[in-house]
Prior knowledge:
Order of helices and strands: EEHEEHEHEEHEEEHH
Shape: globular
CATH architecture: 3-Layer(aba) Sandwich
Distance between the termini: 23 Å
Largest sheet: 10 strands, mixed
Structural class: alpha/beta
Number of strands: 10
Strand content: 35-45%
CATH superfamily: Ribokinase
Number of helices: 6
CATH class: Alpha Beta
Radius of gyration: 19 Å
Amino acid sequence: MKKVLVIGDGCKDVFQYGKCERLSPEAPVPVFKPTKSTSNGGMAVNVYNNLKALDVDCDIITDSGATKTRYVDEVSNQMLLRIDENDRIFISPRNYEKLLAFDYSKYDAIVISDYNKGYVTKQLVKHITDIHPLVFMDTKKTIDTWAFGVKFLKINEKEFKENVNFLIQETPNDIIVTLGKTGAVLYHNDNGVTKEDYFSIKEEHPVRDLSGAGDTFLAGLVADYLKNNDISSAIKFANKCASWVVTQRGVVVVDKTKIV
């Protein structure tokens, strides 16, 4: 069985559900009455958990000290407020040296989940890609030459538009851009010519919660690529995984029995 390493920013996702039945007499805001709470690993931890759910043998290196708490109306599933605590991650020089000294070559693939919180630096990405030929990355950073060694770069449509000129004209990466409910597009650099392949989601799915969908897409992409060595097949499978997970409430791990 192939072995994968996930590295990146982690957090704890907390969903505090409750009822909003009246407005505050002190200000024009709803009065929130908590009813139940759920919590699970988020960001890189969510990628790792989804890979495990898809039967991928994997390890993780992360700092998961951050907490995202969402206050959600349980009737409408509308998020009222999100509070992020310990949002920035600071790595000591000693721990950073450990990351540089780590043996990445023993894994069949490296998955970088970079939420730009501080755990993953540009220098670390460059170091990993110099060592390993098969690196998948989802990043919130502005993309430049530091990311050239990444084999498959996954970003969303907003991030793509912010980097579009550089990505289309300069980067040698295969770029997978998620387009929300409509699917995804692959930009493939073929000897200096950028080619586009669209992967549409034809079936409509009721969207209950988008939280963590990008993590699930990334996990599905990696899992299928390692199985079939075909990026087109991997994108189609990742679309299916993300389409199912958004029908659930909160950040949940993909159920492989539901992916058909």
